Amino acid sequence: MRVAAVQFRGDRADLDGRRAALARWVWGAGPGTDVVVCPELAVSGYVFEDPTDAGRVAEAPTGPTFQALAPVARALGTFVVCGFVERDQDRLFNSAMVIDPAGELAFVYRKTLLYELDEHWATPGDSGYATFVTDRGDFTVGICMDLNDPGMIGFVERSAPRVLAFPTNWLEEGSDVWTYWAWRMDTTRTALVAANTWGEERGVAFSGRSAILQRRERTGGRRWWVLAAGEQTGDALLHAELDAPRPTPADLVSS
Hints:
The protein is α/β, with parallel strands linked by helices. It has one domain (about 1-255): Carbon-nitrogen hydrolase (Nitrilase/N-carbamoyl-D-aminoacid amidohydrolase, 4-Layer Sandwich). The protein has five helices and 15 strands. Helix 1 (about 15-25) packs parallel to helix 3. The chain is globular and about 50 Å long.
């Protein structure tokens, strides 16, 4: 199964420009990629003062971000997962659209476990978790803080998708983010495709370091391999073939 993650920084002052740039990064994943994952709230940025502030960048699931990415998904024949501020009548959600290889909207996942920076503007998600089938494996979607939700981990354990598509805006907290992500996933056999943002927004710093992680069984215990890794700063495209015979760099963490 071929997967990709786009590390990307949004800009609410240039939504159309960032949509076009994001579409170019997704296009770079190329034909034959099964799923491309973009960050949480990918084009708008993450930090909002209140619902009015978030509402200025909110859109319908088939709004401008979908319109920018759907032709790329269709041309490549790939699933695309992308975070956005969703407006549903008078409610706002921290959501991720799932665009299928035909360029159609397959699902809208709404973040279940809100972080403190979401709580003052977003409604907790009510979509539930779901799986999607590609030609070479299935995947599910969770957003950022959902990795700390026992309900999501339980769903992944039971449904055993090959991939967790993970749009995130993970903060810089001075710790090894890959080790933490691997620890949260360690009761599963599911690879993690984490697409993060980077830099600073309204005084909040983000960690970058998007990654594609896969667990391997080895003598003496399980280990997580970093199949592809982003830097702390800068937009980037990561891609990997799951179950590649010689993943690099070296294993991340033992359990």
